[in-house]
Design goal:
The protein is 44% helix and 19% strand. It is α/β, with parallel strands linked by helices. Helix 2 packs across helix 10 and helix 5 crosses helix 14.
Length: 325
């Protein structure tokens, strides 16, 4: 009887340990970083290295996406739970087609991080100097840079010729070799050319003022996962926000981490917050929904604007730093 009681007590104790271990197991979250490099997105890695995921009892793995539909497809199919910095129009289009996707937060208002530059030797100093048929660069049709150039032309009355120059590296090569009159970049990349006096900035995306409050990129997630793991989603978003705060308030340690990861000169990395302000990466609200609906319809992502009921279902702010703990 004594052994039986003792064995029973040991079994209960062992069961309690196993339950405690199970309860403390970190929740796994797979995140796809839509595009390598944007300063706002680096909150993911600040959160990792500062231990914010661990503090939230999360096991977060991050991989780089290739932008656009490929990134979105990862969360639609369930191969990742969260997509960070994915284009808003693509999310709207996928939702309208019935895909299990929701928007958790804004990732970027406006296009202030984008700037255009030219070689100093060509004498071009402003956007207006491109008038008369000179070329204003963008990456590819449908990209954020394409949207920005279209609004710049409208806002500034430009007569420049829009030209696709591919990614930042190819745009740089084409402009600096004289194949195009301008190149585009996302700060702080290519600021080395300006620092060395080889190129000058002729304008920034902030000139497209109509886009200043538009959520051009968002943090999206698999809707079924959010429904089943809402608390996990909230903790992940809280960790992301703490990473965002460290990105801007962490001083030289935060800047050096970004510079090292992106292989940038630290002098250029220090300028990133001048282009990508903390206000531009606030999580809420999702900005300028009427314009988002208009653009999504014009770009053939949707046939008609979403209803208020659909918008309420699609936008699911699980964590708002101004409202939640």
């Amino acid at each position: 009887m004594h052994l039986s009681v003792k064995s029973g007590a040991m079994a209960v104790a062992l069961a309690s340990v196993l339950v405690a271990q199970a309860a403390s197991a970190a929740d796994k979250v797979r995140v796809i970083d839509s595009t390598r490099g944007p300063y706002g997105n680096f909150a993911l890695y600040q959160a990792r290295d500062e231990g914010y995921y661990k503090n939230e009892n999360l096991d977060v793995s991050t991989i780089f996406g290739s932008g656009g539909s490929a990134t979105l497809q990862a969360i639609i199919t369930g191969s990742a739970e969260i997509a960070y910095g994915v284009g808003t129009e693509s999310v709207i289009g996928a939702f309208a087609k019935g895909a299990p996707v929701v928007i958790l937060a804004n990732a970027a208002y406006g296009v202030g991080e984008i700037f255009w530059y030219t070689p100093v030797k060509n004498g071009i100093k402003t956007f207006q100097d491109l008038n008369g048929g000179k070329t204003l660069a963008f990456s590819q049709t449908g990209a954020t840079t394409h949207l920005a150039t279209q609004f710049l032309v409208k806002a500034l009355g430009l007569t420049a010729k829009l030209q696709s120059t591919g990614n930042m590296a190819s745009s740089r090569t084409m402009a600096m070799s004289g194949q195009t009159d301008s190149a585009w970049s996302s700060a702080p990349f290519n600021l080395d050319l300006v620092r060395k006096g080889e190129a000058r900035i002729i304008g920034r995306g902030t000139a497209a003022k109509e886009l200043s409050d538009l959520s051009v990129r968002v943090i999206a997630a698999n809707a079924d996962w959010v429904k089943a793991h809402r608390d996990v989603a909230k903790r992940a978003m809280r960790a992301f926000w703490r990473g965002t705060l460290f990105n801007y308030l962490g001083g030289e340690r935060a800047v050096k981490r970004y510079a090292d990861e992106m292989k940038l000169d630290i002098q250029d990395a220090r300028k990133a917050p001048e282009f990508v302000t903390i206000e531009s990466v606030a999580f809420a609200p999702v900005g300028n929904i009427p314009l988002l609906m208009k653009l999504a319809q014009e770009d053939k992502f949707i046939q008609k604007p979403l209803t208020d009921e659909q918008l309420h279902k699609m936008i699911d702010i699980v964590y708002d730093p101004l409202r939640d703990n």
